[in-house]
Design a protein that fits this description.
Blueprint lengths: L1 E8 L7 E11 L2 E9 L4 E2 L3 E2 H8 L3 E5 L4 E6 L6 E6 L2
């Protein structure tokens, strides 16, 4: 099952801003993004792992699913390990 979603970055001290739309699926305990389209028209079919998307954006990011669920994807400090955390609604 996949969900429509929006992808947002939030620079420190600023409001979150949408940078892409995507379909999101949860496979083998991880988040994967499909049909990613940025606001400037770039497209990726996917699948793109959540950590790879963070590397492409060079930033932590938020994923807001159509059903209201929210996830934050961020790197651990001083490492290349990424984690996905569900946020309270």
């Amino acid at each position: 099952m996949s969900y429509q979603a929006t992808v947002h970055i939030q620079p420190r001290g600023e409001r979150a801003m949408q940078v892409a739309t995507a379909r999101v699926a949860f496979l083998n305990g991880g988040m994967q993004l499909f049909d990613v389209e940025t606001l400037d028209g770039m497209r990726w079919e996917g699948p793109i792992e959540a950590d790879d998307m963070g590397r492409m954006l060079e930033s932590a990011y938020l994923v807001l699913l159509e059903d209201g669920r929210k996830y934050r994807v961020a790197a651990q400090e001083f490492s290349d390990r990424w984690y996905t955390q569900r946020l309270p609604q």
